[in-house]
Specification:
By secondary structure, the chain is α/β, with parallel strands linked by helices. The protein has one domain: 3-Layer(bba) Sandwich (FAD/NAD(P)-binding domain). 32% of the residues lie in helices and 27% in strands. The radius of gyration is 21 Å and the shape is globular. Bound molecules: flavin-adenine dinucleotide. Flavin-adenine dinucleotide binds next to helix 1, strand 3, helix 4, helix 8 and helix 9.
Length: 383
Amino acid sequence: MKKIAIIGGGISGLYLANLLRKNSSYEITIYEKNNSVNLEKGYGIQLSVNSIKLLNEIGFQNINLEDKFHPNKVDFYSLKNKKKICDLNISVFNNIEAKYTTLQRFTLINFLKNKLPDNFINYNKKVTKIDYEDDNIEVTFENSASIECDYLVISDGTFSKSKSLIAKKEIKPKYFKSIALRATIDRNSIKGIDPNNISLSLGSNLHSVSYPIDKKGQFNFVSILRKKLSINELFDYSLFDRSDFISSILSEISKQIDPDIIKNLKDIRCFPVFVSSEIHQPINKNTFLIGDAFFAFPPTFAQGASQSIEVVHELYKNLENEDNQFNVERIERTKMIDRKSKFNYFVFHLSNPLLAWIRNTVMKYLVKNNKFINSYLGKIYKN
Ligand SMILES: Cc1cc2nc3c(=O)[nH]c(=O)nc-3n(C[C@H](O)[C@H](O)[C@H](O)COP(=O)(O)OP(=O)(O)OC[C@H]3O[C@@H](n4cnc5c(N)ncnc54)[C@H](O)[C@@H]3O)c2cc1C
């Protein structure tokens, strides 16, 4: 029996354990540093059809219909003149089995966790050391306890410490010079939008996204604001929880976003956006990186979780075929999605009024151009 240790119980680690447990020749354990998986309620997540198809392999289609939503379009609005620019039909990539889905992050994590036997997850296990000897991998935790395994899968997120441990050098994600403000809002508090779609409002150095996260009228609201932070601010972890800091971000975004929306936001959280600057492929034997530890994308294509799911699925296939590294296509695909996410960020945040007008005019044409849609979105959604 092959022993597989998975570091981190987020979306990636939990999905991998769900896939691997179908094969009885694996003994799988997830080591999670916290005393539970993160089941915080309120936050939304978008999953495009490329990942829904893969999640359906473990029964995702059976989750309660009330707990998910299938938006048909992305409606683009200008924050400057409060008018709709155009809409993009994302449902063209749907099929009977897999539809673009928005839901609470909690619903996805709870689904992944509940399908695993309780003894699969070992809590309070923060990895501090990883050693390789002959055919064995030894993983040591904060309390000095250690385990041995045949395969090590690292899924400890954007700030992966395990990635630095195996590379024997510090690998840090890069600050994307933006702050994300996340919140929930009731459908009745957002006026002038189509509640069946994703609303994407473009402003100057800022954009905001709102979408339903269930069929009960709950909406997720995210605003991404371009903002430089000093080194001291970036390393002051308490800063982002402080009410004076959150108030200052709210006051900055309220210069462009309807004050009625700001007033009705609940469960507000702020955090700096960090992204990967390069792809790391471990050279260590039987060691793999997945999810945000493999590559953290800018949030402007909403592909973080969907890509995590794709990469996990590919690793699952590789393990079955005893392949040790992701193939060239995976690396190229990751780079392509990173480029498109950065391009979206640039386009969404244009501050020059003339450039914004040109963008709006071009967008009206492009969203109706099937060739463009198939190339820009289809290459990602139709994997
Ligand atoms: C603003 C914003 C909006 C987003 N919106 C979307 C969206 O709409 N759609 C989408 O697809 N994606 C979105 N994402 C990205 C998505 O949330 C992530 O890509 C995804 O959650 C990655 O999952 P993961 O399991 O790799 O990492 P994580 O969810 O970060 O899980 C890592 C786990 O590892 C544990 N851990 C950390 N260190 C250790 C250690 N040393 N030892 C043991 N355990 C450890 C942590 O406690 C955690 O449980 C968004 C991201 C941002 C920033």
